[in-house]
Design brief:
Layout: E1 5-8, E2 13-16, E3 28-31, E4 48-51, E5 54-55, E6 64-68, E7 72-78, E8 94-98, E9 103-109, E10 118-122, E11 126-132, E12 147-150
Parallel strand pairs: 1-3, 2-4, 3-6, 4-7, 5-7, 6-8, 7-9, 8-10, 9-11, 11-12
Length: about 160
């Protein structure tokens, strides 16, 4: 199997209305953390922004995997029923890292995944607005980072 969408960049990654379902590995693998082996100071201002309606369902490993130095902002996300590959253990709805900033997910569903609904690790703060995750094999995790949970804003 393979990943659905793979982006390695040395600058900001911006996506809108992504569908990455039924892939053998990750639905999407986004990385502007160590994409080209560039010195850290070249990519400190990089970020990841995903807007619109986005689905990462039924993938063999993770629905969405991302790693960035900067801010990660994700909205209207569905990452359900991932980790379907029996030879891979550890697949989740969303696995994300922000090594120098925060992560915000607004309006999201991460249910019935093989491991976590979400596994998020940020340097400063994880904010979840209107996010739910039920029926996952393991509880969600945020490392040692504070989490702010709010209701989903009306459109």
């Amino acid at each position: 199997g393979s990943n659905g969408l793979v982006i390695y960049s040395d600058t900001t990654i911006t996506l809108n209305n992504i569908t990455a379902n039924g892939n053998g590995m990750n639905g999407a693998d986004l990385n502007n953390y160590d994409a080209w082996g560039l010195p850290e100071y070249w990519i400190l201002s990089s970020s990841i922004k995903i807007t619109g309606a986005n689905t990462f369902n039924g993938n063999g490993e993770n629905g969405l995997f991302f790693r960035t130095y900067g801010l990660a902002e994700i909205s209207k996300l569905t990452a359900d029923s991932n980790d379907l590959d029996p030879s891979y253990s550890g697949g989740s709805g969303v696995v994300g890292y922000s090594n120098n900033s925060s992560i915000t997910i607004t309006c999201g569903s991460m249910t019935r995944n093989g491991t976590y609904g979400w596994s998020l690790d940020a340097f400063t703060l994880v904010t979840l607005k209107g996010v739910f995750a039920i029926g996952n094999f393991v509880q969600n995790t945020n490392g040692d980072i504070p989490v702010v949970v709010r209701t989903c804003p009306l459109p």
